[in-house]
């Protein structure tokens, strides 16, 4: 059972610092209450904290405050600084959709636990987290999801409302505070943690977009990401590298293996042990990016094809029809009209 899987993963010291800032702002001595000094993100490389330690700190604070809603309140205070370099990357994206795409690429810098899965339905971008890394509990989950929504609102300067929010944890005695904050239906005891972002909001421009600064910050984020241990997230690393190779080069097994400092045979074997192939990951990465690009009315079909590394639009059309059962033009028209 998923509930029996030990919690594993890490979070950065910048995120742990969010709790210290919250307690200090409440007039409490955070170091004394939590029994350890404020984390220094510059210590021990990336300053990563085991998920179990983060969970314990949140539970200790919630018990002292007698506040089961601590995660919901804490997440609302998150700033770019608490997201580390990824927070500043997101701040400088052109629009909200681009920010979510960077979140997918660099998620491990802020939440190196259960990897996010992106998909789209007719009216929403869907972010979903499973239970393969255990159940860290309501405080961890609610802090993460609330911080993500709070940060999206800060980036756009608007009170954006998800279409729905889903938590795996038990239903609280009073769910009203959750509905009041998210401004949407909030479900509990779900099989996965999930948030559905209205597709029409993805084109919202961000207030502090700076393309030149974004390039510098992405380079820094890539360097930090490269320092992280591969752990059990090989598929995510392969997807990230595939996305990074597009549209300038064809993402091949050889090219990705070289960047992972592995032989082609070793990479093939490790992926096979996880029940996937390189082609499956390449196709799925392209499919997800295709759906993301087709949701942007500013992009033509020819431009989408080039962004995905196809020399001919016809090759992209054949691939998209194979993935989804419909042409990219029909898909684009359908989601634009929905």
Automatic annotation (TrEMBL):
Keyword Transferase set for record: no
Cited PROSITE patterns: HTH_ARAC_FAMILY_2
Keyword set, alphabetical order: DNA-binding, Transcription, Transcription regulation
Residue span, HTH araC/xylS-type domain: 236-334
Domain of life: Bacteria
Pfam families, per database record: Arabinose_bd, HTH_18
Keyword Ligase: no
PANTHER family to which the protein is assigned, alphabetical: HTH-TYPE TRANSCRIPTIONAL REGULATOR GADX, HTH-TYPE TRANSCRIPTIONAL REGULATOR VQSM
Name of this protein: AraC family transcriptional regulator
